[in-house]
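Contributing new records

If you add data, match the layout below exactly. Sequence lines come first and carry their own label; structure lines follow with theirs. Keep one chain per record. Anything else will be rejected by the validation script.
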Amino acid sequence: MRGKERQLVKTRPVIGLALGGGGARGYAHLGVLKALHQANIPVAVIAGTSMGAIVGAAYAAGYPIDQLLEMALEINWRRLFSFFADITLPRQGVIAGNRLEEYFGTLTKGKTFDQLDVALTVVATDIVTGEEVRLCSGPVAKAVRASIAIPGVFCPVKVGGRLLVDGSIAAPVPTLAAFEAGATAVLAIDVCSSVDRSDVLVQAWKWFKAVQARPTLQTVGIFDVLRSLKPGLPQCVSIVGRSLELCDRYPAIPPPLTSPVRYWQVRPAVDNVRWYEFHRAKECIHAGEAVGQQVAAEIRSLLDRGE
């Protein structure tokens, strides 16, 4: 091929998705995927946090979008309880998470990352350092379990010498992870919401630490009692406290990317859905489909131009 002809060849953009965490609100990701599928937009890279990791892993495992939608609508409280009825001694968490990992193993067809149909990065948080940890090798089920390990509820997951918990703490919407995984154009789906009132817990924890440090109140003796009880308290108490400190450190929405890139961020209308309201799956899916249809035309145009 001669020089001029080579210059005329354009490389098609590599479309990536950054699927954020948000519990039941994450069903909106399925609606976005449905809209992209209907517009014949190929997804080559997915980075997922928490619920976004579950949806991303299932899609990357090869399920047709219609089947994923059916599976989401079939989830009921009895099924959810079977996942959560894995109670353990509350040392690092109330729920061990073994049953959930078994379910994720079934959901991902027992695949490892290198066996997936779509390149996937699962994002978790190192509870000790607060760092974002990207998982992209080994069993997918274990990585997803780490990404959804809500501190104090689920036991942290040990991976590579790290103690990992919910990825939403360090990366609510893993946009940078999607770009660094090879995407050249990223659609970020943000399903964060203040309806869960996690900010209240953060402020309460800050108040508690501030009051504990006041010399004028040290004579009361209550904090001496709490300190004396600390060795006997479950480790999950410290884990929850640490996670609240990290939540206060990181912004709820990732900062804008500094370099000029092909990037879209959408927010499905699911702000009023609480993280545990899984029975509202249909509503969330419709909200995701609506915003997905709005942005799909622009992405389709980008692909057609080959820019």
